């Protein structure tokens, strides 16, 4: 059900931002809509998601109306801090948003449109399990204004899917992509590598299958063992073997090779797109520190330098909103040091990199050594940008430590 919420100061019952907070009206604004429902809990997953047996006091069929209450409450909060802005991106994440009827997702999107407006050319993404995408579902989503479907493929190899507790039929990935394409939606597929028992050949099979779908975008994430998950307990008991760092590095290099040969360009450590037009603009908003409001239980937000987050359980979330209160559980205003660390951590991950001038003290002095070690690109550094080499992408955490120590 996700990791613990951070500590922070209390949020007023009306959700107001701290006194003196002023929004930059020229800054982009993104909206995240969290749908916390899953049919099955995957053993590796640490997201704030719930199966039907875990809801206890919350109803899936009432969820859209509950979330719309939070959207309505947010409008005066933003107005008091300088005004609402149209959303440049909207992202339905989860969980499995497509477990809800498409009409519920459409109503949630209409709530965003009616409250904030949606910018011309906005990117509107829905995450989906391939088993939940039919031609009718894809058509209804497209008609509501959705522009992009992100399909959780994870693997094309049955025993790897089983190791991840994924229950979808691998053949349905192709069916889901075809349905999305038929309605004109852009398509992204998500992959995970390093599952217990997955070989390099298994990973090649999944990559080749993903490329054959001719999608616009592919994400490939290394499996991370999160505390409190089923998989972490299995590894601790010796039932399965933990991911091998060297094998995962080989898998990453294979992904970069095969995707590059297929016409995909890396633009973030774990993401490749067929040209700039198909990058995930919503995720880029996170990486460059733009403003976003996350709606839904456990969702996090960042507006005008203020971070805040909602109560986790759908029942507690619904109860607060039914009482006309903000579901926010806490907030913080990171200091300059924390903001600098976060900027280096996130912006070094993207292809455009981080301006060298934004590095502090010893961080700037570390650049030359990182070039010598083959971790950042020398020509880019001469142009004033810190851009990771492929080896640097594999050792991104070490690069960040060198730039911030």
UniProtKB/TrEMBL annotation:
A UniProt-annotated Pfam family: Radical_SAM
The answer on whether this UniProt entry bears the keyword Ubl conjugation reads no
Listed A to Z, the keywords are:
4Fe-4S, Chaperone, Cytoplasm, Heme, Iron, Iron-sulfur, Metal-binding, Oxidoreductase, S-adenosyl-L-methionine
User: Some GO term, biological process aspect, for this entry: which one?
Assistant: porphyrin-containing compound biosynthetic process
Q: Which GO terms describe its cellular component?
A: cytoplasm
Record-linked CDD domains: Radical_SAM
Is the keyword Oxidoreductase assigned to this protein? Answer: yes
Gene3D superfamilies in the record: Aldolase class I (3.20.20.70)
Q: Which SUPFAM superfamilies match?
A: Radical SAM enzymes (SSF102114)
- Compartments where found: Cytoplasm
What family does the entry list? Answer: Belongs to the anaerobic coproporphyrinogen-III oxidase family. HemW subfamily.
Q: What is this protein called?
A: Heme chaperone HemW
Q: In which organism is this protein found?
A: Microbacterium trichothecenolyticum (Aureobacterium trichothecenolyticum)
């Amino acid at each position: 059900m996700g990791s613990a919420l951070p500590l922070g100061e209390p949020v007023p019952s009306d959700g107001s931002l701290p006194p003196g907070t002023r929004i930059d009206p020229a800054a982009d604004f993104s909206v995240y809509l969290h749908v916390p429902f899953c049919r099955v809990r995957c053993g590796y997953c640490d997201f704030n998601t719930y199966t039907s047996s875990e809801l206890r006091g919350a109803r899936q069929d009432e969820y859209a109306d509950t979330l719309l209450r939070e959207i309505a409450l947010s409008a005066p909060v933003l107005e008091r801090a300088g005004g609402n802005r149209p959303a440049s991106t909207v992202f339905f994440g989860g969980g499995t948003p497509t477990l809800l009827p498409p009409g519920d997702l459409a109503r949630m999107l209409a709530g965003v449109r009616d409250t904030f407006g949606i910018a011309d050319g906005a990117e509107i993404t829905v995450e989906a399990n391939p088993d939940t995408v039919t031609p009718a579902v894809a058509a209804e989503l497209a008609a509501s204004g959705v522009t992009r479907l992100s399909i959780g493929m994870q693997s094309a190899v049955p025993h790897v899917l089983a190791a991840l507790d994924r229950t979808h039929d691998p053949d349905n990935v192709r069916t889901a992509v075809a349905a999305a394409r038929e309605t004109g939606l852009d398509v992204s597929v998500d992959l995970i590598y390093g599952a217990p028992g997955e070989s390099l050949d298994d990973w090649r099979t999944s990559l080749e299958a993903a490329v054959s779908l001719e999608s616009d975008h592919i994400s490939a994430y290394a499996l991370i063992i999160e505390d409190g998950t089923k998989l972490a307990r299995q590894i601790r008991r010796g039932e399965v073997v933990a991911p091998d760092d060297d094998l995962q590095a080989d898998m990453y290099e294979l992904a970069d090779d095969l995707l590059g040969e297929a016409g995909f360009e890396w633009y973030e450590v774990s993401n490749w797109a067929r040209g700039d037009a198909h990058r995930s603009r919503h995720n880029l908003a996170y990486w460059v520190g733009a403003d976003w409001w996350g709606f839904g239980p456990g969702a996090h937000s960042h507006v005008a330098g203020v971070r805040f987050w909602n109560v986790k359980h759908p029942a507690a979330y619904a109860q607060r909103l039914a009482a006309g209160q903000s579901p926010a559980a806490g907030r913080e205003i990171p200091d300059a040091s924390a903001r600098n660390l976060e900027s280096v951590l996130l912006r070094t991950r993207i292809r455009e990199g981080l301006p060298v001038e934004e590095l502090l003290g010893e961080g700037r002095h570390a650049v030359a050594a990182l070039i010598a070690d083959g971790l950042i690109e020398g020509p880019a550094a001469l142009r004033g940008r810190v851009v990771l080499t492929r080896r640097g992408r594999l050792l991104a955490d070490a690069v960040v430590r060198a730039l911030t120590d």
